[in-house]
Design goal:
- Chain A is α/β, with parallel strands linked by helices and about 450 residues long.
- Chain A contains eight helices and 21 strands.
- Helix content of chain B is about 20%, strand content about 35%.
- In chain B, the strands form three sheets. In chain B, strands 5-4-8-10-13-15-18-21-23-25 form a ten-stranded mixed beta sheet. A six-stranded parallel barrel of chain B has the order 14-16-19-22-20-17. In chain B, strands 1-2-3 form a three-stranded antiparallel beta sheet, with no helix packed on it.
- Classes of the chains: A alpha/beta (about 450), B alpha/beta (about 500).
- β20 of chain A pairs antiparallel with β24 of chain B.
């Protein structure tokens, strides 16, 4: 008796030969990029072989994970991996992201650490012996490709190993400078080890110095020890011509508390794939985010939590503002495994659609195998409330201002969770700067 | 080509029937076509029914399409269901009570044993049951055996008959609407059904007519190893109204039986169709042996100001794969879906609905209640699609799951696709168990634990049950109780 198993369509990468050349070239000739001798080379090789086998998930039929995201244009582009020359201009980078002195700032340009300040407990990724343990390169072409090209010099391994609070937020800034030539790929890798009882704040920023086509494949793996607490803020504002496929994997031991808050505005196609695995009792996982899209942008949020132990709490809450002909996807999943009793899980995705032509696809799903649980989910979509708009107008607020107020108010709920004052002020400012573009591409509702 | 394998079905050996009281089988002489599927079988079915050429051609096209899907291994596997591969060549595609070779003119000519079967089912086929006020079309192993009240309905211009009769007597209507909602290219099981469907019900309500009684079809699979492939087509013409009931049962069989039906509803301008189902196919034994594999495609189209409402109580079948849907094509049209699905023992249900909003001001409501018990797996899978032209469309979805015991599963997979900013969409869902406080309260009043559970579950399902016509609502409540027996305590 054979049981039916979903047949995964075979995918390929159009420029597989080119990636293969790059891979062999870098492995054999660029000792500074990757070395055949270092501890991670077997992982690279295995990931490369996997990528050769599965390529990019271009064929979506029957592939639930990529149902709403078309990758054909990504596959068409002849991206290059390499060890590029860099012209680091810190002043320009400081215009793109906040870098206050109170933070530990780590600036990576095209994958190499170019500047650091503060006292982040940072070592090279090479020193981490569990890279790839959480982010499985199998079954995901982007993780496979990123892992195959794992750099020696790039990457961050952060060890918050003391049971204390690390007061200074660690800010990892990944900058892409496309002026070095051809469409380039960057694959920043981060491994975070939160020791038992440690507390820290991590800020992860992704920005582009040039407005051209490039691709970023960040892979972040986080191990949360017992009672550890991490606030993870994520800011993504890559070039609007770029592609951003991010993977975050978190393993949570008992009583740990992981809070992720993301703000995504950049890239042509952006994907934020987060998975938290609650393996210890009383662990808490909070995954919140706001995405703002306009023009023809596409933002895909793949947010998943698995409860493998009892008494855990999880909360997924995403909000989207869509304008122009943009499209956003929320694919949330909560799995409660057999025996994970007393689970309390929430999942919500709310969307503000500002224009005809914009599209939101939301799929908040639950998979539950335990009976003594509380799980709820919800989703909404619609334009700004016409009555509220009218109310504001009747009080003398002009249409444009009123609409902006409502958009700001909608996003504010998530924005307020960026608790660092400096970061919060910066993001509010980003929202204000984006507002004209959002509004220009919006429909008029009621009377303007 | 001639039929072979004439045989008499005898009573089944005793199986653990998990309290399934509709599990008797009937000794009726059956006429069976050889097992397996081929163009010849399709031709045989068509010939048996004395069908016109266009009908045969349609079937053959469907067969060809299905064969193509079969070759491409395109049998859908995305549902959260696990079952052994189905051997489509090991199924009887045509099983008919033999005594109908010379079609009965009236109920007097109907095999008494069959009449008894329907009596056992509580289906009023006799004239004396006229007071029941329900017109019934009884389908036995895919063949319609009797339709009551046909004359009275005819006076109002309402057509209610078996599909076979409709093809003979109203070919223009059948040709116009058959496949208009569910084309044979729709999916694997719809293609299979289109090729081999043997009978089903047809109803047509003319413009402005409100059908005064409920129309009802009762389906029963009897022959072992046979598939049931019936097809239902209901058309409410402009301003017409009809309420339609469907009930299903099957005898207890050790092997699994395949049921792949297609239901098409057409509600023209201002038309309204209310479609209620109590699905109680044999669910298999307590340890998951046998049971009906239920793969059903149900869909309706609403034109301007029309309304289609699906209500279903799903307690039977080992495997349920069913998504009654509405394509809201006309402006201001309404689609509704109310469902209670229960999966006990080793039952698996993957069911839900699709609401596709095309017209302006279209409105849809989804209320789904899933109950999982024993080792049951219950999945709500729903789609709400708002197309760009659907100005001011609204949808409200509520889907709740209840888990009884810690070995079952409850899953919710909604797909919400919005392409118009004026749409208003809300989706809410919750998962819970029967609360200890409520149980304690009832038990402190002297109510047994089992009754208390039943009361709470019935109350929890009330929003759906109340949408059923009265007689059906009573049956549904009883069915839930029987189906849950043994799951509590």
């Amino acid at each position: 008796m054979t049981l039916n198993v979903a047949v995964m369509p075979k995918n390929t990468a159009r420029h597989l030969a080119r990636y293969r050349d790059d891979w062999h070239h870098l492995a054999e000739h660029q000792e500074g990029y990757m070395s055949g001798a270092d501890a991670h080379h077997e992982l690279r090789r295995a990931a490369w072989e996997e990528f050769e086998r599965i390529g990019f998930p271009v064929h979506r039929r029957g592939n639930e994970l990529w149902k709403y995201t078309d990758l054909r244009q990504v596959d068409r582009i002849d991206f290059r991996f390499g060890d590029w020359d860099r012209h680091v201009d810190l002043a320009r980078i400081a215009e793109l992201v906040p870098m206050p002195e109170e933070w530990s700032n780590l600036v990576f340009v095209n994958g190499s650490l170019e500047h650091s300040s503060g006292d982040a407990p940072l070592t090279r990724i090479q020193a981490c012996d569990w890279v790839g343990e959480l982010a499985d390169y199998r079954s995901n072409g982007f993780v496979a490709l990123a892992t195959a090209f794992l750099r020696i010099r790039g990457g961050s391994y952060l060890q918050f190993d003391r049971p204390r609070e690390y007061v200074r937020p660690v800010h990892i800034i990944h900058v892409i400078d496309g002026s070095v030539g051809g469409p380039i790929v960057d694959n920043p890798r981060v491994a975070v080890e939160m020791g038992d009882g440690s507390r820290a704040t991590l800020i992860e920023s992704h920005v582009s110095l040039t407005d051209d086509v490039h691709m970023t494949l960040p892979v972040v793996e986080i191990k949360m020890g017992e009672g550890a607490e991490l606030s993870h803020y994520r800011y993504q504002d890559n070039s609007e011509k770029s592609f951003h496929f991010a993977t975050t994997r978190v393993l949570q031991e008992a009583n740990s508390n992981y809070r992720s808050t993301s703000f995504s505005v950049g890239s042509d196609i952006g994907r934020n794939d987060v998975f938290t695995h609650l393996v210890g009792e009383y662990a808490e996982s909070t995954l919140h985010g706001v995405y703002l899209t306009t023009n023809r942008q596409h933002q895909d949020n793949e947010i998943s939590t698995t409860h493998a132990a009892p008494h855990c709490t999880s909360d997924q809450y995403y909000k989207g503002v869509l304008s122009g002909r943009s499209r956003a996807v929320f694919s949330g999943k909560i799995t409660v495994e057999r025996g994970a009793q007393k689970t309390d899980a929430n999942q919500k995705d709310l969307n503000l659609l500002l224009s005809h032509g914009a599209e939101v696809d939301t799929k908040p799903s639950l998979e539950i195998y335990a009976d003594d649980v509380k799980c709820a989910h919800g989703a909404t979509a619609g334009h700004v409330d016409e009555d509220t708009l009218f109310y504001l107008q009747s009080r003398g607020v002009d249409y444009h201002t009123a609409q902006a107020m409502l958009i700001r108010g909608f996003a504010a709920e998530i924005l307020s969770e960026f608790e660092d004052n400096e970061l919060h002020a910066f993001l509010e400012n980003q929202l204000d700067e984006l507002m004209p573009a959002l509004q220009a591409a919006s429909d008029t509702i009621g009377t303007a | 080509m001639t039929t072979q394998d004439r045989l008499t079905i005898s009573r089944e050996s005793k199986l653990d029937d998990a309290g399934y009281k509709w599990g008797f089988s009937t000794d009726v002489e059956m006429e069976l076509a050889p097992k397996g599927l081929s163009p010849d079988i399709v031709r045989l079915i068509s010939e048996k029914k004395d069908e016109p050429d266009w009908m045969l051609e349609w079937r053959l096209k469907a067969f060809e399409y299905w064969s193509k899907l079969q070759r491409e291994d395109a049998e859908p596997r995305w549902a959260k269901l696990r079952y052994p591969d189905i051997d489509y060549q090991d199924i009887y595609y045509y099983a008919a009570p033999k005594s109908f070779d010379d079609a009965p003119k009236s109920l007097d000519e109907v095999d008494p044993e069959m009449l008894e079967t329907f009596d056992k089912l509580g289906i009023p086929l006799h004239e004396r049951e006229r007071l029941a006020g329900v017109a019934v079309d009884a389908v036995f192993d895919s063949v319609s055996v009797a339709t009551t009240y046909a004359d009275q309905l005819e006076e109002r211009g309402i057509i209610f008959c078996s599909f076979t009769e409709a093809v003979q007597n109203h070919p223009e209507l059948v040709q116009k609407y058959l496949g208009s909602v569910v084309p044979y290219t729709d999916n694997f099981f719809a293609a299979l059904n289109s090729a081999v469907f043997s009978d089903g019900s047809f109803a047509y309500v003319p413009p402005g007519v409100r059908c005064p009684i409920e129309l009802m079809t009762y389906f029963r699979i009897n022959t072992e190893g046979s598939g049931q492939f019936e097809r239902t087509l209901i058309v409410a013409d402009e301003g017409a109204y009809v309420s339609y009931l469907e009930g299903c049962t099957a005898p207890i069989r050790r092997t699994s039986q395949l049921h792949a039906a297609v239901v098409e509803l057409v509600a023209l301008d201002r038309g309204e169709i209310k479609y209620s189902t109590i699905q109680n196919w044999y669910p298999g034994t307590k340890d998951g042996q046998g049971g009906v594999y239920n793969f059903v495609t149900k869909r309706g189209i609403t034109e301007r100001d029309a309304k289609i409402s699906w209500t279903q109580v799903e307690t039977g079948s080992a495997i349920t794969w069913k998504y009654p849907s509405v394509i809201l094509r006309g402006d201001n049209s309404v689609g509704e879906f109310y469902s209670v699905a229960l999966a006990n023992n080793y039952q698996q249900a993957d069911t839900g609905t699709k609401m596709i909003h095309i017209g302006k001001n279209t409105k849809s409501t989804i209320v789904s209640k899933g109950i999982s018990a024993g080792h049951g797996e219950n999945t709500y899978r729903g789609g709400v699609k708002i197309l760009p032209g659907a100005e001011n469309a609204t949808n409200h979805t509520q889907c709740d799951s209840l888990l009884v015991g810690d070995q079952c599963g409850a899953h919710t997979v909604p797909y919400i696709e919005v392409r118009n900013p004026t749409a208003r969409l809300e989706h809410e869902a919750s998962t819970s168990k029967v609360s200890d406080e409520q149980l304690f309260y009832l038990m402190s009043r002297g109510i047994s634990e089992e009754d208390a559970h039943h009361m709470i579950i019935t109350g929890w399902s009330r929003n759906v049950i109340k949408e059923l016509p009265f007689e059906f609502a009573l049956e549904a409540g009883q069915l839930l109780k029987v189906s849950l027996e043994g799951a509590v305590g």
